[in-house]
Write a structure and sequence with these properties.
By secondary structure, the protein is α/β, with parallel strands linked by helices. Helix content is 35%, strand content 16%. It contains 3 helices and 4 strands, in the order αββαββα. Strands 1-3 form a two-stranded parallel ribbon. A two-stranded parallel sheet has the order 2-4. The longest helix is centred in the middle third of the chain and has 12 residues.
């Protein structure tokens, strides 16, 4: 990720290539960051929902390494 966008050289092209197949699929998003406030997750989630993906929960983010709160969300505790 950079400048609050999906990483442009590998991940953005990958996500764009599957975006049209998300309709009706249950999706979970997660990632970590070390700058700004993780706005990219909100954008990524909005793109997923606009493509018809069904979010199973809000995207999970962790600043730096996942802390106990982020880990508890990811494993359902």
């Amino acid at each position: 990720m950079g400048a609050e966008e999906l990483e442009p050289e590998e991940f953005e092209p990958f996500f764009a290539s599957i975006e049209g197949t998300l309709q009706g699929r249950k999706i979970g998003l997660f990632g970590s960051y070390e700058w700004a406030d993780g706005e990219w997750m909100r954008t990524w989630q909005a793109r997923t929902e606009a493509a018809g993906g069904i979010m199973i929960a809000d995207g999970v983010t962790a600043y730096g390494y996942p802390d106990s709160e982020a880990l508890s969300v990811s494993d359902g505790r």
